[in-house]
User: Fold these one by one.
Assistant:
Number 1:
Amino acid sequence: MRLTQEMSKVEVKGFEARYYDRLMDLITLGYYPFFIRKAIKDLGLREGEKVLDMGAGTGRNALLMRPFVGQSGKIVGLEIGKEMQEQFGQKVAKYPNIELKDLRIDEPLPFEEAFDLVFISFVLHGFIQPKRDLIIQNAYKALKPGGRFAILDYANFDVDKAIWPVRFAIRKVECPLAEEFIQRDTKQMLSAHGFTDFEEHFYFGGYVRLLLAKK
Ligand SMILES: C[S@@+](CC[C@H](N)C(=O)[O-])C[C@H]1O[C@@H](n2cnc3c(N)ncnc32)[C@H](O)[C@@H]1O
């Protein structure tokens, strides 16, 4: 099957967007809040760091990152979904060091050596490979030398051998791009763009991975 960007479900809209956080909690039987707290702790953020959150969603992740970077740090979220932008705005209203920009991550971005960490959570799998490559290039350019790129997304595994709820989620709920992403070696994808020094953390029985790489 030839994969096209039109098959993607990554631009979350309508009901799914309005109730996104609650739906994630529900689908994971209440485990999501524990998982996401752990994953954000595993980013190893430090006081004063600047973070770029690509496809920032409702702002849930930005709020969780905020205590780690403190008042001297900064978080910039990039998000194009109107419902997501509204929720992000409401959540972070009282924090002047969290900012939202209405920018597409799959088009060239204006940031150069400005961030310590670029974070992309459950977004990269939803793009065709040329767009993934452009997103990775954007991340590389946006990072300071020695900065980290953090991909929280599906790990690389054999979907045929996965437990049935995972197979069901990937083949019936997700778009076909997700399975293609799972089968592609993500580390190789990053190495091709100059990233090195990989660090991995696994969740949900190894089906989800936080992959950290250095510029
Ligand atoms: C599956 S959600 C993940 C949201 C958030 N990162 C999280 O982990 O909760 C994907 C998000 O990426 C946003 N998105 C999709 N395509 C985008 C693009 N080209 N540029 C910026 N944001 C995009 C969607 O609107 C949605 O909020």
Number 2:
Amino acid sequence: MAQEKTSTETAEQFALRMTQTVSSGFVTLAVAMGMRTGLFTQLSRLDGPRTSVQIAQAAGMKERYVREWLAILVTARIVEYDRQQRTYFLPPHRRAVLQPGAGKHIAKVPEFMRLLAGVAADVADCFSLDGPQGVPYSAYPEFPEWQADLRREEHETNLVPNFLPTITGLEERLKTGIRVHDVACGRGIPTLILAQHFPNSSFVGTDIDRDSIQWAAAESNRRGLANATFQVQDLAKLPADWSDSFDYVLVWVAVHDLANPEGGLKEIFRTVKPGGLVSVVDTRSHTELADNLDNPAAPMMYGASLLYCMPVSLHFGGKGLGCMWGQELAVSMLQEAGFANIRVMEVPNIKSKLHFLCNKPRG
Ligand SMILES: C[S@@+](CC[C@H](N)C(=O)[O-])C[C@H]1O[C@@H](n2cnc3c(N)ncnc32)[C@H](O)[C@@H]1O
């Protein structure tokens, strides 16, 4: 089907499509700048159309920059422009999508692309046979903060009221008191939230990134959480005395980044109690490329994979699964690691992810 369409396309039509594609890249950067400068927030506060001078004054910014930025958004059909009045207006239904904190996760991605564009040359160097294997985490210094912001949006009003009830009985057990491990936790946002909600349970967040763990530990102290600890820990070699220790393990969008995902899953299996539950949350995708053709987010996700997920794993000589490893491979790797009752579930309010819920068999 896709091949038929391609064969009837003329060079002129393809050139136009390329122009639109490249334009979209610039529009994405402009959207990222709008988020960063707070211009979308400013536009959203306005009760009607305004000139660029009025918008720049309200924002306390240089009019010439604001006007050129507006021009990108007008020609991209994001901001409406009145030719006679020379006024600009961001319609309410677009504000809802673009305003930071609106809970629409797509609003966070333009800044992610801006951040990834900074390493595009490093990744391009990896293609050559004698080039580097991958790119170190240190090449993405802004990533942990960006990711923690995204997780706050994903979890703050969603984790406890919507995500937990999809796991039968877990909320009750958290209230009573169980041991939870947040694997490759980054800045540990879900652990911070869960520890606050469930004081009878104890939480451990682990990650190889020292800075993220320090941030999480400091935030935990700031919140006065006595039931959460964070420690630097390579998932490939969890402490020997952690066997059969955890009632529930959460792995939020991390398996595909690991250098050794099979080894990591085996360590999770070893350290969860018999009968214990494991939630692996990861990108919604299929393992077979052709099955992702109808996913409008697929080019964006393969882009994130190429520019971040894959090279950080390959840097360690790892597997380089990439974030589009797909649900079919995820299920077979969980089976291979020994997990049972694997269910592929929706993540409430987060369409871009899937939840693989499974458990370690008893006995
Ligand atoms: C995409 S981030 C997800 C972080 C966090 N779960 C979240 O949802 O924000 C992947 C994380 O895996 C961590 N990581 C990579 N390899 C690891 C390993 N071998 N052991 C522990 N953590 C690892 C990285 O440092 C990074 O914080």
